[in-house]
Amino acid sequence: MRKKMWAMLLSLSMVAAMLAGCGGSTSGGDAVATDKTADKSDIAAETEAAADTTGTDDADTGSRDFTYKVAVSNLADSDETCYIACEKFKEVVESDEFVQGVGHAVSVEWVDSDGDITKQTTNVETLVSKGIDALFLIGVDTAGNSSAVQACNKADIPVFMVATESEEGDWKFVGFNEYDCGKVQGEYVVDNAKEGDKICYIEGTPGREAVVQREEGFMDAIEGKKGLEILSVQSGDFKAEDAMQVTEDWIQAYGDEIDWIVSQDNKMGQGVVEVLKAANILDKVRVSSWISVGTWDAEYVESGDIEHCVYVGFDVLGQTMADVCEKYYKGESIDDRTYMELFSVTKDNYTDYFTN
């Protein structure tokens, strides 16, 4: 049965799951505060001077000399979620509204790492040599990215790690709060479950910081709900095929006892749904999962196959990156960790976030 269902998921394999690819914060050191990103009085002074000499009319007409340059190093342009974030970031930063907000034009230097840490490190070193004001880095590897971060530190270029972290160097984080992602799912279950409901919880790769935090958020949220029972917690390793195997095992072990299956990401959620469909029990088991993009995985919510999803919008992430970039050029203080907004999506409010 698993081989037949896996064929239905092959077309999904190129889209990265939130944690396995762009969206997942892997284990690493805590963000280190640095004055480089908070104290930009020189940039702010230049901005004011540019505003005085350029005038409102030039800003309104979108005059671009691109004296200022910010870079974004993408994990992989082939990763749909990461691409959306970078695309939105570039669109906003190079817009007339951004020019008016900071007082001068900013160009975005966008480089693709193709999922290769060596290529990403080389790209960043090239960017440093060319001269950039700041770097937004969607990291390929937590340990491997240390070299790129430290190269920027040495050149006094502030680094913003996007949805990923670096083991070493000074950087600030822009992304989503992993604990809150799990909490959003737990709060939905608490609000909608019946007393006595039994839950199977499918997590990602064991040991990853994001996996631990998401589970903690979920378990803390449901702790006060009387009568809920966790039947099993198993790893699906952020893979659809692994989630299918886990779900098959659960059906064999627990059968009709299962009321909910909660998945830590969208790919595993899809695997869960396909097994439940094949077993003809999708109408009996309620599923909470993720939406990362709003394309193929969102269709599961629109159809009602998945009852609830945490929506981590990567266009929202791109906007959040741009908001941080604007603060940087204005010389405003930037928190060590900037979190984007999360949304709780069901079939009832699907059209508030996605359109056909």
Structure description:
The chain is of the alpha/beta class. It is 44% helix and 17% strand. The strands form two sheets. A six-stranded parallel β-sheet has the order 2-1-3-4-5-11, with helices on both faces. Strand 9, helix 12 and strand 10 (308-311) form a beta-alpha-beta unit. Helix 1 (2-9) crosses helix 11 (266-278). The protein is elongated and about 65 Å long. Mean pLDDT is 84; it is low at 1-21, 23-41 and 44-66.
Question: Could you give a quick summary of the protein structure above?
Answer:
The protein has 356 residues and is α/β, with parallel strands linked by helices.
SSE topology sketch:
Layout: H1 2-9, H2 35-38, H3 41-60, E1 68-74, H4 80-93, H5 96-102, E2 106-112, H6 117-130, E3 134-137, H7 146-154, E4 159-162, E5 172-175, H8 178-192, E6 198-203, H9 209-222, E7 229-235, H10 240-254, E8 260-263, H11 266-278, E9 286-291, H12 298-303, E10 308-311, H13 314-330, E11 337-339, E12 343-346
Parallel strand pairs: 1-2, 1-3, 3-4, 4-5, 5-11, 6-7, 6-8, 8-9, 9-10
Antiparallel strand pairs: 10-12
Helix pairs in contact: 1-11, 3-5, 4-13, 6-7, 8-9, 10-11
